[in-house]
Amino acid sequence: MDGQGPSQGQGSAILSYGQIFLGTRGAVSQGQLKVSSNGLLWKRTGGSGKVVEIKKADIASIFWTRVTRGCQLGVRVKEGATHNFVGFRERDLEQLQNFSKQQYGMEIKEMMMSTSGRNWGGVAINGKSLMFIVDGRPAFEVPLPDVVSAQQAKDDVMMEFNVDDTAADEREDMLAEMAFHVPQGHEDLAPENPEDAPAKVLLDQVLAHTDTGGVSGDEAVARFSDVHVLAPRGRFDVDMFHGHVNLAGQTQDFKIRFASIQRIFILPKSSTPHTLVVVSLDPPIRKGQTYYTHILCQFPSEEEVSIDLDITPEALAAKNEKCGGKLEASMTGPVFEVFARTLRGLSGAKITRPGAFKNAAQDGFAVRCSYKADDGYLYPLDRAFFYIQKPPMLIPFDEVESVELTRLGGNAVSSKTFDLVVRTKNDVEHQFRSIQRNEWQVLLDFFQAKRLRVERLREAQAGPNVANARAAAALDDDDDAGMRHAEQGVDEDEDDEDFVGGDKSSSSGGSDNESGDDSGDAEMIEEEGIKVNSVLDKKKGKKRQQEEEEEDEGGESEEEEKPKKAKKPAAAPKKEPKSKEAPNKGGDTKKPRKKKDPNAPKKNMTSYMHFSNAMRSKMKAENPSASFGELAKLISERWKTISPEEKAPYEEAAKQDKQRYNEAMAAYKSARGGAGGDDDEDGGDEEGNE
Predict the structure, then answer these.
(1) Using one digit for the tens of pLDDT, what is the confidence trace for 212-265?
(2) Can you give the pTM of this predicted structure?
(3) Where do the segments described as Disordered lie (predicted)?
């Protein structure tokens, strides 16, 4: 909310104010207001949403009022409504006053609000706003475009305001209706026709500035029955009125005023004979605790319809004058086209269709992909990405920081699919997975045509083969992949519930790490001329030799005999494998692997390990088809994106676990007379998360 001094932006002075509320009839929205030499621009906080732009040439007057939330800057637009911006401080007036005189050549008038509580006053229509004035001071002001119906009853004028389902918070109060009593003989509202009452004069003035087009009734202009809506899911009868639209379903109804409709999208679905008409809202409608920013209406692409609007020629002309002249009294064509054109003509919202992009097969305007656990379609439009369907997401290009064609999930050397990562300027990352390989080049060409920044552009231009080869080379690096994951905090020894084949004893002895000592469940013996040692060398390779070198430096560990489990019921006991004493190919004598002392304390876990244990079941539920490696990568990506506040509980748990381990290790060493420290360092990482 703090005012910032004028700063140079593109050659002109700009005043910027944060935490400024846009005052409306009901709920208010918070955003940022920029005052420049070209006019005023208010944008809602949180990315895409409502934008209020007032050009310098359209400003009729500016006034300053003290209200309950601080101070209010009112901007009255020529032939338009008054926009009220709330949240300024007293000291901001001087700065704004000087700026307005220099840039706009007009003075900001200070207006006092009437607080007398008297209900007798005058009415003034300023643009599209109705102001009630008491003793020369405004008592309140309401926007006339919000009026959905107005009627006269003798000397009273009753106005009903739209109470829709796009309120930001159900606890907010909202003006629903208002009545004015206009006594006979009112001098300011003298009728031209002596038979008309002064109330009729006020009614005509109100209707002339409403979005109903001068219609006082509440009859529907058009009706579309049994419309299949994907979000919120259900079948609805859609009734379009002069100022709002109703969605009536079997269990729920929604009422949406046209001012909440930001844009209409017509998106043909790929591989199916259906077309989506998406209605974008700000603020969104609400069902329980779920908010729907986009309404997805699905229509058969081949179905035709003809409708005649229930509207008078006068009302049609008035509506076209207000909403761009796109409304027709009769329309014929595909049902999705007629639906969208009718909604556009009544609301004034623009229609967006797919642009030049087509998929690799040239039979659709979208690429199939998955987002989290949902399988849907991504539409690259001329100015934005639109993902359908759970959740529907609109990502404008002006909010995109960069895009990347990569392989983040699944098998890194897969040649069939790839991933698209879209990073926004708000540090939000959207990953669209499992896109078919043949879509790589068409997407890259589209990104370059739209001048979107492509990360690793040279690799992307070389094609998916180079990207996959790079990923494969990373897997074949001399460094152990498990060690790389350990450096990132990924626990390779953690068991996944879906992969446990039996009891704990049977699932813990099958890893390659433990097959060379006596603690495994199975035993390898020499038979038919096959040397166990050679088999192990081929299986383990460089990793096994590295472990042996470390054991040579560390010295011998204490030998503790453990009972061996028989491979099969046999009469004769098994002999000690000769492979432990057999020389290796280099001629050096192999030394047995050190054993983990079962009495040693359990190794402490890092904060990431605690996070991984807590998130694994949730990530598994969200991605039921993901492999163990994919889950590990998804958890790692989630860990990188959470805030320090969200990491704090896991860091605290790691701190307590480390304290527990240090105390237990001190007691363990003391009991052994100071010995056993090296044994713990050898075996601690293997036990880490059993």
Answers:
(1) 555 545 678 999 999 999 988 899 999 998 888 889 888 888 888 888 899 999
(2) 0.50
(3) 488-610, 669-690
